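Ticket #4471: structure export looks truncated?
Reporter: QA, pipeline team
Priority: medium

Steps to reproduce: submit the single chain below to the structure queue and open the exported record.
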Amino acid sequence: MPDTVLVLNSGSSSIKFGLFDISAVEPSLLCKGLLDEHEAKPRLVVKSPAGEDLFETRTEAPDADGGHLFADVLAFIEDRFGERHLRAVGHRIVHGGPDYSGPVALTDDVVAKLEALTPLAPLHQPRCLAPIRALAAIRPALTQIACFDTAFHHGLAPPASRFAIPRRYEERGVRRYGFHGLSFEYVARRLAEIAPELVAKRSVIAHLGNGASLCALHHGRSVDTTMGLTPLDGLVMGTRCGTIDPGVLLYLQQHEKMSIEDIQHLLYHQSGLVGVSGISADMRTLLASGEIAAREAVDLFTFRAAQQVAMMATTLGGLDCLVFTGGIGEHAKEIRSAIGERLGWLGVRIDATANDDAHERISSSDSAVDVLVIPTDEELTIARHCAALIRDRHAT
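Actual output as written to the record:
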């Protein structure tokens, strides 16, 4: 009986998922879908790998933990792929803290440790952990595996990992962890496949989406990144501020009399593109808008991105390759072009036609830096980790 793993990638209001056959060395996608809890009637949509509709349902009376949707997913899998054995469910967990540098089978003790990290990722960690509880209630015997966004950056070392605060806090785990690691891991592996000559060179991967960060890559390893202790730091994002003067936070607390909870809500939900534009957190909406505030928000986004690519290049001692990925990085040609123009002094030259057509390689022939567009696949990365962990456990 062929083995499968179900991969869940939890976002702020929806969960992407994929069912993978792990019988071969490389997992293969059997179906993919979306659990959308944002609408009044939560919706489950399942599609084939080619995008054909396979199944859709809505729930009239949702339960608190979303268990109804997961039960529907499992029922669909059993009905459609009943000849296969579901070995595990793999989860994207945003924060692994200092303890987890690779995938781990979930136990009550592990879940408790991950819950304790919620203050470091209050927007994401609870959303990542909720499906674990829901599935444990439905299928307590089903193996669940955590894969961490922080794991790819686990080898970050001082000075890149260090804050300039009293050392006693670093000893308590207050350090730069980095995120989007599952995406960066996929892109790094794909880059090695399509351009092996670049592996040993100095590369920056730009994961640009509603959440956005950069990774400085050398010999396939993360040596620096723009996010830090939490997913707030670094680039301007859809609703998150990115890098900010700490004095702004003190001002808001002391003079605007904002509570810690109010400031947290402001930084995670009301800042970034939506805060600057006052229009939308969606880059597509802003690019289509004629409003000055929309243009200013886009300008700040590309300014910060280029500025921090240069920061990553400083860590690397130069720049040989720039890779765009993520929803904005893969689809917004205007953003790629604007960032490229700002980095012209580093030798970045983008070919307008290749960029407009979203070719894999969009750098011009006279560019000193290779510029590529590589679609990411976090779900496949999770499936690979789950398959490897299952094989290792079986071997022992």
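Status: closed, not a bug. The export was complete when the record was re-opened. Leaving a note from the reviewer for reference: Residues 292-316 form the longest helix (25 residues).
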